[in-house]
Amino acid sequence: MKRSKSTSPRNSFTMRRSSSTWSMIMSAKKKRKASPVLTRQMSHSENILADINKLDSKGRSLLFLAARCDQPEVAIQLLDAGCNANLANSEGNTPLHEAAECGHLEVVQILLQNGQCDIDAKNLLGQTPLMRAVYNDNQEIVKLLIKAGSDIQHVDQLGKSALMVGLQEGAEKSCLYLVKAGSDVNLTDREGQSVLFYAVHSSYLHTLEVAKKLIKAGCDILKNASWLMDSKHDENCLLLDDPKFHSLLLSKIGIKESSPRKMT
After folding, report:
1. Is the pTM of this model over 0.85?
2. Of 26, 219, 223, 261, which is the most buried if we count CB atoms within 10 A?
């Protein structure tokens, strides 16, 4: 069973500014409507840019918090007032990272429409907003980011692409779309593990559908020969559930075997 990943907003923080703007965000969150109070407050501020770009103790801006709390109206007002869309928190995540991971489609659309947002900004782990969207299998956001120009071939500090991240986390729908969109199916990470390896060893995938799509998309079986020829596989290997497919893969590298065995 795929593990649960919490994406709910955490509202406890200390802003180095008056609490009125945060109170307004929370009020709008409850009422789901734009707040003219914020517009007036911003319009009359002499230090408007410095004010709205202030960060809390964790490096989060008001725009970041609006993205986390799914407040598109507030995000629009902040951006219109000149808020920096690329301010990152202490983990290197921008508002786009946060909205993409949380599945807040409308906020993602607003950030992209702003035109100043770095669509492939990397956090401290080298992850792009696309990778964070894939992590939680937010398929609609994955599609939106790719159509908006996000580079699906980017890799993080471990050499993992968005496709590898998705396979590892069991994000089947997003992975199928990434394969269709042209993600590199022959990539290996820094540990030498291939895309196909991830597809059959994920603890959170339950079928070989993605693996089969990889083969159709041109995955080089010969580059996976060493681990495919291993007669024993760990208990998470999906090939144990489909010996016919395993035999098909082996046949492509000139080996005949009836069925894979579980590692003991």
Report:
1. no
2. 219
